[in-house]
């Protein structure tokens, strides 16, 4: 089991004097230190410096490099859109005989409160060092576009502006995006375009550290999470793959996402993969890969390699596992080991540990949060390793207790077969709803059933032992790496999901575990020894939890996250503290006292169930709204306003127009048309990131209706200086959300 998980671990980082044609984490890390020196949110002076640095580096490497200055728009829905002024750095590396374009992407902006050492210093430094290594070698066959996007954190608007308006977006191609959600762990190729068979094959063959699972692709497609890659996929002209490392999530989007916390081995792995993939895809005919293949592939890591087969085999394998389990049930009956009726009973009983295991995993995390409330707001604690082991132990303990209580009454073979029924059924359910995940239970069920048939057919103890071990080994090799990837992916907050797969692995191992209990004469001493096995798992869970609690302590370097924002409504002269923490910690609790939805629709806070408290009114003005023109053209009212912040450090503007009974049929902000999907309502709400310093010009075309009012809100970062605000004590720091430490000031202007 150790081997199958250890094979996921990233390699030794290469030193700065590594050969020029290789990727060196040390050389890449020099870029990380430069980029991640301070927060560089879109529109900030720090991000302008990062933009210039990247452009200078690319130009120095001989790439034709330009900065795209544009306005992007994304996340539009009826009545609302996000927009941003962006500066994308775009470098072009001409191929010798191009068959299509390869796009390499990472975002250069960070969140407002963190330096983005890993997010996305990981991707930016990976691409800069990859391009350096490429330019040290022979020219590639295909054209390569290197794209460093802006405003990914704000609204994916840089990627959108590139896709919709940059000439190099052309007719699209194959895109590779590089990200990080945390500071460590193996880079995982976790997302692909649809019809990924060809791309998965290329990845499996080229990537030296092929950590990827088709189940992650299924899970990610079902989640609302987004990166720049989502924009390209939605565009339709691109295919591609998205990679990220995701462990060390406690630092994600926080002030602790510093360069020095980045795991250099993770960087080496990401770089090795990027360079190898670009060389591979850069030199072959990629015209076929630039179109979706006819099907998705199934793939998963096994002992350092990627096992892969076409999606069309998912159903045959799931079917084979079901059939094998049915055959096993009949063999047991024929051999007089278990009747079909008993096996059906065993199947019903096998549901217990599969359901109770994940609940126990969830319960353990609840206990840990009760002991250390600061964990409540975190996806994962700072050092989750011991807690993950404890979670595995607690789930295994549940399975073992269930097994010890029932194995003599029901029969070991009956219970093990009952468990295999569920694995095979799940393989079919997954084949239907998430085919990329069916392998997780199809192979353990198939191997377990075949091993069971062999064992039932013989009285030879050695053959029975070997078949139990082989069946168990298949379950370990297939399930353990995916479980190891699941823990960081979902966090201990969602430990029930990896807990579910731990329970499946544990029940698949029952025939092998049986040898810990096996004693043909069932002497009393062996019963005692039998009880000792689950007891050992319980002790292990307690010990691992205790070690985890003593190793993982909150301090200045590993603070408790605190999420707090300040919102001021100039119209009513009311101000609030607001937090997204559902159960506010000691520090945040000083400001908030109950749950409520704010009466004013502030950006990021609108409509959310928040914990809020009254705040003193700060001496901060709302943005100034001035009408530049207001005329009726062709029966429609065309209204142009300028919204100008009246205070320093404004990062975003919220512009909400409401028309009494009318319809907003067109709109433009900073010269960019608002996407059609946001139009047609009696209101339009634009959240504009990185607005121009001299104010944002917005024009609306309104059909029908009466008076219009415009609410303008501006947002800046940092709560210090606000009346009543006390800086956080040592050991408490800003939480990693887009609304942390946001100061919002709002006012309405009637426009007649
Ligand atoms: Zn990112």
Can you describe what's shown?
With 752 residues, the chain is of the alpha+beta class. Helix content is 41%, strand content 23%. It has 19 helices and 24 strands. The chain has a 15-stranded mixed sheet that branches. Strand 8 and strand 9 (305-310) form a beta hairpin. Helix 13 packs across helix 17 (496-508) and helix 16 crosses helix 18 (510-517). It is globular, with a radius of gyration of 29 Å. It binds zinc ion (ZN). Zinc ion binds at residues 107, 119-120, 152, 179.
State the helix count.
19
User: Which structural class do you get from the secondary structure elements?
Assistant: alpha+beta
The small-molecule ligands in this entry are: zinc ion
Hey, roughly how much beta strand do the residues contain? 15-25%
β-strand number: 24
Global shape = globular
Low-confidence spans: pLDDT under 50, at least 5 residues? none
End-to-end span in angstroms?
Answer: 71 Å
Sheet of most strands: 15 strands, mixed
Helix percentage range:
40-55%
Q: For the CA atoms, what is the radius of gyration?
A: 29 Å
Q: Mean of residue pLDDT?
A: 95
